[in-house]
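ingest -> validate -> predict -> emit
validate: passed (alphabet ok, no gaps, 185 aa)
predict: started
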Amino acid sequence: MNTLLEMLLAFGPLNRNELSLLKKNIKQLSLNTDDFYLQAGEISKDIAFIETGVLRLFYFDKNGQDFTLQFLKSKTFIVETNSFENKIPTSEYIQCLTKSTLSVLTSEALFNFSKNISAWNSILGKLLIKIKGDKILGLRYFDEIAPVNKYLLFKKLNSDIIEILPSAAIATFLNIPEKFIEIDK
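emit:
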């Protein structure tokens, strides 16, 4: 939880009383491998921070094939921003790839913060911009790289989690044939 508070402080100032209010309103959530944090059709109402574990953000196309949009690991905020901001059902899923522990800022807590923390709306705005930016960067980072090099770079950048990621999820994320990954594993 302290890491979450440190991350929030990077987005704006909080005094002791405000930090205390945050601490009191953070909910801990433990999820097992394959559990969903969010499923298509639900509205993303809360913001979570991954304390431990690895999750993936993905969707299904019209043919039922899943496509990974992003891998989310420790010290990462998660929320489906379009659903959260527009209060509409999401078309994406967030699923645990490992046993995970999340610190959750519930919609009730977020409303409470907006009433009682003077800089909260600014902090929340900056946080949502960061989450969107991370998603876009993740989607575009590997676009202009040759398929073999995409995987090698991805492996280097994610050496801490590469062994637990499903080959098919990596392949859809990088938009490369799964054979490039299977040869390496």
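The CA atoms of residues 4 and 81 lie 19 Å apart.
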